[in-house]
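User: For my dataset I need records formatted as: sequence, then C-alpha cells, nothing else. Please produce one.
Assistant:
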Amino acid sequence: MLTALRWMRMQELARRCFVSKSGISQIVSQLSEQDLVERQGLPDNLRVACAALTPKGEKALEESAPIFLGAVRRHFSGHLNEEEITHLTRITKKLITAHGEPVEGPG
C-alpha cells in the first residue's frame, strides 16, 4: 500500500489493508522494528500518525516485487489466459493509479 505514496496516514492504511486501526498499528510496529517503515506525524498536526517507507523498506519492496508478481502469475495462470492476465494487469494498474494519487507528505 505504501508503494505509490511512500507514506500514508495510519487510518487510511488500515482501511486499504482491511484491518483495524489497532491491527495496522501492530503491523507497523513490527515493520518498524525491522527498519522497513517509520512512524511520522504531519508537520501541521502531530496527532495524525503516518507510516512511511524507509530506504531499507523501499529496497525490500523493490526486491520482493518480482517474486510477488511471479507468484500471482503462477496462481492465476491456471485460470486465466495471457490476454485475460494482460487485462487484469492493466485494470489493476488503473485502479492503483486512481486510488494511489500522491499527496503531500510529512516533512
